[in-house]
């Protein structure tokens, strides 16, 4: 929603609904705080990676990075997700690199593929945790999203924020992009801004592309070998992906932004030029493998999180795991 990033007449028109949203969400959170509504405490520490605003902020690469960093400390992390867009017949569902992204969701399949960590999806996060712990030993659970899911108790909260879009116009839904007021940032443990530093940053996340992978042949080519291409993206912030390609010196003759978690079919690609490369994100690629064409490429990114406080975050999680294991 473009008006979420300015204060127009639409913003003020929707303000009463934002006030209602705040009243309902605040009342519900109070019910959990005073134990009127019961919350679940997992037997191992839980780290929530979420955000205040809707839209693509970069949670998935941050989760992948966190799994890998904790592994360096000797900690086995399991990942749970609501599995947005998944069409599984039953939940909870254990997700593997070979899972059908239609059934399991694109992001959980991507996380399982990149990390080889145990992943489970379910709208009921308690069931997802119990399923993971039943099938594999986990020292810590990482919840992909769920900052506002107060039914799940957590030990560490990490917020991911798009540095360019920030908190938008500062209003709650539907007048703005926020699920909670900006003051909520004062109570979280760590704030990672995606792309650049701002006044909220504890660390900065940089997503760096290194090469392109062909969906059919699996061949890898440096991005600087491509001159012209078409690009599509079904993520929360498609312009970020297109800009990343252009920064690599690729001229994009056509771009197409799809909805986040777009369900792809081969017919959606009929209009694109088959005589030049077509680029997509790795998240999109997991849904296109079954009908991929030889001119289709995806661009995996490496995640770098920079900041003096980053090691303190990893140490804090490790200490939580040590306390729980005593």
TrEMBL record:
Annotated binding of ATP, by residue: 53-60
Enzyme class, UniProt record, top EC level: transferase
A single MF term (Gene Ontology): lipid-A 4'-kinase activity
EC number, UniProt record: 2.7.1.130
Any one of the GO BP annotations: lipopolysaccharide core region biosynthetic process
A Pfam match: LpxK
Entry's Gene Ontology cellular component terms: plasma membrane
Highest rank taxon of the organism: Bacteria
Pathways per UniProt: Glycolipid biosynthesis; lipid IV(A) biosynthesis; lipid IV(A) from (3R)-3-hydroxytetradecanoyl-[acyl-carrier-protein] and UDP-N-acetyl-alpha-D-glucosamine: step 6/6
Keywords: ATP-binding, Kinase, Lipid A biosynthesis, Lipid biosynthesis, Lipid metabolism, Nucleotide-binding, Transferase
Reaction it catalyzes: a lipid A disaccharide + ATP = a lipid IVA + ADP + H(+)
Sequence similarity: Belongs to the LpxK family.
Function of the protein: Transfers the gamma-phosphate of ATP to the 4'-position of a tetraacyldisaccharide 1-phosphate intermediate (termed DS-1-P) to form tetraacyldisaccharide 1,4'-bis-phosphate (lipid IVA).
Name of the molecule in the record: Tetraacyldisaccharide 4'-kinase
Top-level taxonomy: Bacteria, Pseudomonadati, Pseudomonadota, Gammaproteobacteria, Pasteurellales
């Amino acid at each position: 929603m473009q008006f979420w990033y300015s204060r127009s007449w639409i913003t003020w028109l929707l303000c009463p609904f934002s006030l209602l949203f705040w009243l309902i969400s605040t009342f519900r959170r109070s019910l959990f705080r005073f134990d009127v509504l019961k919350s679940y405490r997992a037997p191992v520490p839980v780290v929530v990676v979420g955000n205040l605003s809707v839209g693509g902020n970069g949670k998935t690469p941050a989760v992948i990075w966190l799994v890998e960093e904790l592994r360096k400390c000797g900690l086995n992390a399991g990942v749970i997700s609501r599995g947005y867009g998944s069409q599984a017949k039953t939940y909870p569902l254990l997700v593997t690199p070979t899972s059908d992204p239609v059934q399991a969701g694109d992001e959980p399949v991507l996380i399982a593929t990149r990390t080889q960590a145990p992943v489970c999806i379910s709208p009921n996060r308690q069931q997802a945790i119990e399923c993971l712990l039943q099938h594999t030993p986990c020292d810590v659970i990482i919840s992909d999203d769920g900052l506002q899911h107060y039914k799940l108790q957590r030990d560490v909260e990490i917020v991911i924020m798009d540095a360019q879009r920030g908190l938008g116009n500062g209003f709650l839904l539907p007048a703005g992009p926020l699920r909670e007021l900006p003051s909520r940032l004062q109570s979280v443990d760590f704030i990672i801004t995606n792309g650049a530093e701002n006044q909220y940053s504890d660390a900065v996340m940089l997503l760096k592309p290194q090469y392109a992978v062909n969906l059919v042949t699996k061949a890898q080519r440096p991005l600087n070998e491509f001159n012209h291409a078409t690009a599509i993206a079904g993520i929360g912030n498609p312009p970020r992906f297109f800009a990343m390609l252009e920064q690599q010196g690729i001229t994009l003759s056509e771009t197409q932004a799809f909805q986040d978690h777009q369900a792809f079919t081969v017919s959606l690609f009929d209009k694109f030029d088959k005589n030049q490369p077509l680029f997509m994100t790795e998240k999109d690629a997991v849904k296109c493998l079954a009908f991929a064409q030889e001119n289709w490429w995806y661009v995996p990114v490496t995640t770098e999180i920079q900041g003096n406080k980053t090691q303190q975050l990893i140490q804090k999680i490790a200490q939580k795991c040590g306390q729980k294991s005593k």
